[in-house]
Amino acid sequence: MNMNFASPADPDTLSRLRHRLGLAAEAEGLLDIAYTTIDSPVGTLLLAATPKGLVRVAYDIEDHDRVLEALSQRLSPRVLRAPKRLDAAARELGEYFSGQRRVFGLSLDLSLSTGFRQLVQRHLPEIGYGQTRTYRQVAELVGNPKAVRAVGTACATNPLPVVVPCHRVLRADGTPGGYVGGPGAKKALLSLEAAA
Amino acid sequence: MGIGMKQPFEKVVEQHGGTVLRVCRVILGVHDAEDAWSETFLAAMRAYPDLPDDANAEAWLVTIAHRKAIDVLRARKRQPGPVVEIPEAPSALGVPGAGDGDLWRAVGALPDKQRQAVAYRYVAGLAYAEIAEILGGTTDAARRAAADGVKNLRKSYPGATTEGAPS
Lengths: 196, 167
Hints:
Chain A is built from seven helices and six strands; from the N terminus they run αβββαβααβααβα.
């Protein structure tokens, strides 16, 4: 039918309805994963949280669509863009990037990592703001001095970069080493913390 | 996307939210359409983990919207007083800003089944077999309901055409 009711629904109404859906889903306990995106000096960051806490921070170069698909597969497909649950995370990250915050006070959900990787990621916040450690030192910190390579893997698969500070772990020769956000992002975070 | 992979629900809303809203508007009018849309997507989100990966998401959503709309239509019929099934005011049926009250009155005046068949066929673009499953009854009956709906619309609204409609 070539009729007006087949014309596209107005975008304002749809965005209002989608916003309302996010609130209703949260109230009904259906919002397994809420996400939003924020601008930062290291590019657009995706923030995702379960009811337990922040579960994922992802850089642009990780491809946010793929990150959301992976969350949908691994945790739950009940995923909505619903910024409210991420308000505290967005605020604390904003403060961090403007040099106003040195420690994050967010609830974290580490369920994307298991075993030794999660153990390493739990210990990483012990490396203070503006400090660095080598992969070997972190291996010693978690009580497994021979597991240097495994520490490298744990850092590379950190689901919560920036908040869980894997950027503070460097190679023994002082060069930055790999980083999930790319070497530029790692350097940017290290110089941000050195300057503050 | 790989085979057997369920996309995030946000993508489902993004891809089908507009169509479901248009369907709800045709069935219920603009005012009740928004509540029906919200209830449809909330119910869909609840059931989404159990939806087979290869299911037709749009037909599934229209099926849910159909049930939600029937609840609203039933409630309207129970309402006492002169305000029944078909609100007279064009503002209750027309798309805001679309300025075509005659068409909306004509659509609103169709019997429920014809209006539903027209919406699912010409707004959602579903196959008659899918529409038959939603309405109950045979594929032929669904085809007939849509054809009768179009015929009645042409009578009361000569400007209506089926150009560009799915064949």
